[in-house]
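Usage example:
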Amino acid sequence: MSLTHLKLMVPLNKADAFAALQMDILRLQGFKSSKGSAVDVGLGPILHAFPKATFPVGAVHEFLASQCEEAAATSGFVAGLLSALMGPFGTALWISASRTLFPPALKTFGIQPDRFVFVDLQKEKDVLWAMDEALKCGALTAVVGEVHDISFKASRRLQLAVEQSQVTGFVLRNNARKPGTTACVSRWQITPLPSDPVDDLPGVGFPQWKVELLRIRNGKPGVWDLQWTNGRFQQVYKPHSVSHEQSKKVG
Amino acid sequence: MAKRFVSIWFRHLTTDWFTIGQPHLKKLPFVLRANSRGRMVITAANAEAESKGIRSGMVLADARAIITTLEVQDDKPDLIERLLKRLAEWCIRFTPFVAIDPPDGLLFDVTGCPHLWGGDVPYLEEIVKKLSGRGYDVRAAMADTVGTAWAVARFGRAPLVVAKGQHIEALLPLPPESLRLEVDAVERLHKLGLHRIGQFINMPRASLRRRFGPHFILRLDMALGQAEEMIEPVQPIVPYQERLPCMEPIVTGPGIEIALQQLLETLCLRLRQEQKGLRTAVFMGYRVDGKVEKVDIATNRPSHSVRHLFKLFEIKLPTIEPALGIELFVLEAPKVEDHFAQQEKMWEGSGGLEDTRVSELIDRLTGKLGMHTIRRYVPDEHYWPERSFKLATSLHEKPATLWRADKLRPLQLLSTPERIEVTAPIPDYPPMLFRHNGKIHKIVKADGPERIEQEWWLQQGQHRDYYRVEDEAGHRYWLFRLGHYDDKTYQWFIHGFFA
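Running the assembly step on the lines above writes:
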């Protein structure tokens, strides 16, 4: 089919042919053309890093974190994405073998915590099995799984599952022994940044992160500073300098 | 539908059982003994011993006087009950309705069963053949009433199948003992010269009642089918049950899957027609060696979807050990609830928690990983962080109150707060620095304190003063001081990590 496609496209013009071929490649790689149902996840300028400038749903995203603080930042960023993806009626599964997520805090990121189903397991192997099973269920919006290590083969299984069901998967890798190669569509690393004071008042400001898109299939990796403000992502432009003066709000 | 019953009489139940274990006893006169008031009394004798005039109830010494080479073994207490129960369960292959009839029999309600074996006579022959094949000396009879079947099995002559509606004629030549009467009633009948049921069956009821009591009339009516007789099955009858006997014992995985698929299809068809859905199901395989292999599943909402239920079972099928082969498969649905098709359509594809696909997924997960692994939370009205949410009882439970968002809570919460060492200006300033896991964090920004009191009606203890702090690296923590600063016993803890 693609051959005839090619023949048809060649006489037109080179740029068009390239674009068409790129589309074909995307389709073969499992990017379904989202028929006008692209979800606005509110990532703003980051969207240009993605193919077709839309956040890839129906794909598995991988997040690396090396310590608890980063894991908290990562879960915050993921929760921000989920709040946009889930909308008011979506359902998501949170599968983990060592969950420290505090459900009521999800409300801060605009998610009703009761729309989450938590699956708390003993073994990592079961987490992967449960994720595989859950990603096949098209009624879910997203599946979040916490695992330390994931093999290429396992990640391929997850990718194949989501290509069928169009569920979005998030693999949170806390303290991964080595990042390795995976079949996930992207790899992110979220690190917390010092917050900006709000209206020059002392105290802790809005959560702010350095969002590193380390790898993205058919996209452009990059680094951004984001802040979670009033229920949405906001890009921050500032020189990386940390003010050391004590600013405390005590009441 | 007219009822049909089979009564089975084990003539030498216990001695047969001993003979099965020790075949050399078959040709020998053999008795079982038990101690009764300081004497050894015979409790059972085999056919060989009985032919020499030894009866149960005899003193052992008397029996030894008749046959010096008598083989004697100790009787086991409760042996009869255990044997009968086991045999009854084994006989469920013939009819689902098997009852124990102590001391030496079984009762089947075979209504609607014999035609599966090709009629009454082959059915009864098959029962006798199977039981004799196991080494038991049995007599079985079939009739329209329990009483008649019982009487014919023990006292009747061939043919032992009493045709429909012929049970009164069959009773006429039998002795009064066959009516299961009390001993003195039987004695009195014989004294009066009434040796056949036919001699008194047409006597006026009033005079029979006056002479022999109400029990006599009841037994007579039961045998004649004028009074209902309740028998209690060894296994409660599950109304939603499908059975699949196999021509050859099944030993392979694919064979078991085919059996399961067939059973599910018939059961689900029936459930769909009755607008029901099952909540629990048990799949059993009766093995050739008499053991029963069993797997069970449960669902979150009533279901009659073959595909879904098969998937649930599929996870557990490998635990079935066919051993020498499985000859009968049974699928039961002990718990069934109303399930309307329209209702399902309404939720289909909505993509929320109400979607059937979600509950099917949860069923699959719980089937493999256990019920306790799935958790969903709804808010609870407590300020104490660990109590601010509670487990939802079902997938569909709606939160009774709103989730609070006015107080910031950390995304990652340690299950137990960890001790930290701090430097903090008193009285209630946030710490300037703290040490956690050997690492020193210098605090740059802080919010607080937020005091959360213990709920004294639930738990005694000190209050917590929470601070939200940020260190130089931009990491955000939730710290608290337990107790008043002027107590000198206060302690600092880290409880969570903010995003």
